[in-house]
Amino acid sequence: MAIDLNAEALAHLPQGVEGPAYDRAALSAGIVHIGVGNFHRAHMAVYLDRLFSTGADHDWAISGAGVRAGDARMREALERQDCLTTVVELDPAGLSARVTGAMIEFTEIDAAKLIARMSDPAIRIVSLTVTEGGWFVDAKTNGFDAAHPDIRHDAEHPDAPKTAFGMILAALRQRRAAGDAPFTVMSCDNLPENGHVARQTVIGLARLADADFADWVEANVAFPNTMVDCITPATSDRERALVRDRFGIVDAVPVVCEPFRQWVLEDNFPQGRPALEKVGAEFVTDVAPYELMKLRILNGGHAAIAYPSALLGHHFVHDAMADPRIKAWLEALETREIIPTLEPIEGVDFEAYRRKVEERFSNPEIGDTIPRLCFDGTNRQPKFVLPVIRDALSKGQAIDGLALEVALWCRYCAGTNEAGEKIAPNDDNAEDLERRALAAKDDPQAFLSNEAVFGDLGAQPAFVAAFSKQLGALWTDGVAATLSRYARG
Questions:
Q1: Which pTM value belongs to this model?
Q2: What is the pLDDT of residue 445?
Q3: Which pLDDT tens digit goes with each residue over 188-207?
Q4: pLDDT tens digits, one per residue of 430-449
């Protein structure tokens, strides 16, 4: 008989399920985390749970928070189970389950209450996981989107903000007025230079309302860069049933994830930090090289397999990786064109990291899907692929495979797979992308002229020529033959 997850259940968890090896009643919050989704609970919360189990840093527990309707639903579910989460690691060698207890509360979804919580001097870090698109970045300039309606509202009503960033600023104003030290703002989102993006958004919003206060934030608030990594699928009835039937726990919002985790942080925490290095996190002076490695090899790798896999009819990522055409294409692209754009990192073997990424993609237990990898190419291509092309061009390196990746995205956007079956729209700009992709059969520039995606890259002759060649091959020879030709060299 499965047991309901709550604090009382910790005393009699089913055999084989680990629980917190510490007294949760002795924990106190030192971190407010905004955006308590699956990734946060599979990553940051697990690191802290493991740290607390060593007996260290019990004043760094998590106070959950959110600002969206979905956060309210998560809060309701977690409150019912005393903020506990079952985390299942999907290791092909054998699944394991752990109940984590690093979160001790979840603030009501109310701006005033969240501001008050962040104003407490005991809170020394405010961290956020608000998705790649939640940072108010202008797609054309990559700068702060000062024209967004929510940003305009917060600039005009700083005491009644709608956004997490407006609430952060309101709390910082209160702390400044009280003479309390400011908290550190830490992004945990999968963004290049996420600390710089956080700084840009917070200070950009502050400057719209109060230049003097913006100067104070700029001079006194730390925004460390971080690199985060752990493949974490969405939770559905399938995962809830797995936790109930396999591990004997009824959890409304369990998390399943791969057994691999990585967290590299810039060591810039003026008000202190938990000793996460004791449980595998890495603190460095410069995160950028590690971040670039991950963004290009892992995220770029996801982009590389997404579109050919969809065009060849694969649904699951592990099935795509079992297709020798996809596996050979990925290995050739990463080895020949992606890894050569990276500068060496002392103590890091890029080829070993690439092999680990390939192993992770091939894990059948994760159940990650090709439609998820294909989602939102309009935002993902400029983050994970196009910068690699720009870098390779600047260094005089090969881009044939990288151009093929973009051509595969274009071919996918045309709306049918190789069997002629319709591909469901998977991008907010799907209609425009399909129109451009179909026109590109005869005029490749029709796709590359999308300046919101390509900027000036779409007019660079070397890239235009390589893209045109590869797109023509895809329409003439087909996906399989074009991939194989590239993999053979």
A1: 0.88
A2: 97
A3: 998 889 999 999 999 999 99
A4: 999 999 999 999 999 999 99
Looking at the domain that runs over 288-488, which CATH code has it been given?
Answer: 1.10.1040.10
**Local confidence band at 339 (pLDDT 50, 70, 90 cut-offs):** very high
Cα distances (Å, whole numbers) of residue 375 to 69, 184, 243, 423, 455: 22, 32, 27, 12, 21
Residue extents of the structural domains in the chain:
3-285, 288-488
Query: 3-285 belongs to which CATH class?
Result: alpha beta
Q: In what order do the strands lie in the sheet with 103-106?
A: 103-106, 61-65, 29-34, 125-128, 184-187
